[in-house]
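Repro:
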Amino acid sequence: MAMKNGVSFILIIWILTVVSANDEKSQSIGHQKAGTQWCVAKPDALDKNLLNLLDSFCFTEIDCQDIQPGGPCFEPTNIKAHASYALNAYFVKTGNCINCPDCSGYIITNDPSYGNCHYPGHLV
């Protein structure tokens, strides 16, 4: 009887371990995080709209230090990458992804962070 109880205890521990591991995998798959969203620049957004957005957001709404020279998100040095960072920072701050027809942002569920550049996510 003692052996049977010992086996049952080990079986229960093993089942709990498997269930726990599967639950963790469902919460974070690659760069997806359950219940988290990011706002980035639309691939077809016009550069002039993105520049206007950067000018507006970086001086009044958000801290754009990370996309300045020497910042962790300065590279790549293109308008869409910098605008994506700014859109996401605004989204995290306000919960609003600028996604009207003439605007530039859309919501994604894959973390766009890369290298040392971290995009904080917005929990839904």
